[in-house]
Amino acid sequence: MPMPQTYFLASRDFDAFIQDVRDTCLLQTHHQAYHTLRAVLHTFRSHLTTEQALQFANILPAVTRAIFVEDWKPNDTPPPFPDRATLIREMKSVRKDHNLAPENAIDDVAAALRRSSIDEAELDRVLTGLPQGAVDFWNTGDTVRT
User: Fold this and answer.
1) Shortest CA distance to 137 belongs to which of 55, 74, 76, 46?
2) Residues 6+ apart with CB under 8 A from 45
3) Which of 36, 108, 124, 145 is the Cys-Cys partner for 24 at CB 3.0 to 4.6 Å?
């Protein structure tokens, strides 16, 4: 069996993705884009059980998947997804002193993720099996800037 392309092209694909996050969020550096992506992913993860989080992780590209699970302390009784304003506050609280994520970072990262090498149909299929609020979290809405 040949090496899966998701691993063979991981660096190239992630470089393009993180640049898209940087540009979509109107950030200045890849470092800021990484921390924004991490905050969005970890906020989403905090509302999933271990099994749900792993289902979601399985559809992510390799490096994004690694960021999604880094520093994870699984909680199989996660809180439900709150309203968008609360999710934004949660996202902005991740590494608060180093977090430069804009207010619309969740929407912007969702748009960049959907433009990346992810299979959108598979993303939507997985999201519909997750708790109420998961689909809305990754809905790009009308506020996405491109």
Assistant:
1) 46
2) 53, 56, 68, 69, 72
3) 108
Listed as own residue / partner, the contacts of 88-94 with beta carbons closer than 8 Å and 24 or more positions apart are 90/43, 90/46, 91/39, 91/40, 91/43, 92/39, 94/35, 94/38, 94/39, 94/42, 94/43
Angle at 115 between CA 111 and CA 120, to 5 degrees: 90
Nearest to 40 by CA among 111, 116, 97: 111
Backbone torsions φ then ψ of 137, nearest 5 degrees: -60, -45
Model confidence, pTM: 0.91
Amino acid at 80: P
pLDDT tens per residue, range 68-113: 999 999 988 999 999 999 999 999 999 888 788 999 999 999 999 9
Q: Which residue, among 90, 70, 78, 71, has the nearest Cα to 50 in the 3D structure? A: 78
Rounded CA gap, 136 and 124, in Å?
Answer: 11
CB 66 within 8 A of CB 74: no
Report the Cα–Cα distance between both ends of the chain, in Å, rounded: 39
